[in-house]
Amino acid sequence: MVAVRLREVAYTLSPMHQNVMNGLWKDAAVKLRKRVADNWTSALTLVVPIASTYWYAEHFRQEEKLQHRT
Questions:
Q1: Does the UniProt entry include the keyword Magnesium (predicted)?
Q2: What is the 3-state secondary structure (H, E, C) of the chain?
Q3: Distance from the CA of 41 to the CA of which of 5, 14, 27, 69 falls in 20 to 30 A?
């Protein structure tokens, strides 16, 4: 049997320095706007089919609810 030495590392945060993810959210709106502006055609090809499918399903459901009235 071969003995394997295991090492354990514990990472902790100092109570005085807890801004770990500060850079992730910094200027998030500007970054998002730039990405959408650079890739608006790709964004449209993603958003339009999803939005139209949702609109069609809602319209169909509403018509189905009102069908018994005629």
A1: no
A2: CCCCCCCCCCCCCCCCCCCCCHHHHCCHHHHHHHHHHHCHHHHHHHHHHHHHHHHHHHHHHHHHHHHHHC
A3: 27
pTM: 0.46
Phi-psi region of 54 (alpha: psi -120 to 50; beta: other; left: phi over 0): alpha
Length of the chain, please? 70
Of 21, 28, 54, which is closest to residue 36 (Cα–Cα)?
Answer: 28
Give the model's pLDDT for residue 40.
87
Return the higher-pLDDT residue of 11 and 70: 11
Q: What is the mean pLDDT of residues 2-10?
A: 77
First to last CA, the chain: 82
